[in-house]
Design goal:
Radius of gyration: 17 Å
Number of helices: 4
Number of strands: 0
Number of domains: 1
Length: about 100
Amino acid sequence: MRRYMGILAAFLLCTGSISIARADDGKNIFMTKCGSCHRAGGEASVCSPSKYAGVQWQRFFEKDRHTAKKNIKDLISPADLNAVQDYLVKHAADSEQPESLGVK
């Protein structure tokens, strides 16, 4: 029984570390998944984290503003969407590390 508990604990620890790594990958997800529309010449305006303040990004996602054109929940998993939101807020115009990149 103790052996199985150890295996279960190791599995949960590994699973947790994978989700943490994914949360840190918001920029990559933003560039690849969001970039399909939000790039120069794309169907949506070019977008970067520093376009808005952190609270504006949070409100955007809380109010589900993206569904006016496309429902991104049909295109991106909830975990990836959270990672993108975290990335945008962390690098917003009013953050300590604003990031201005146009998706190319």
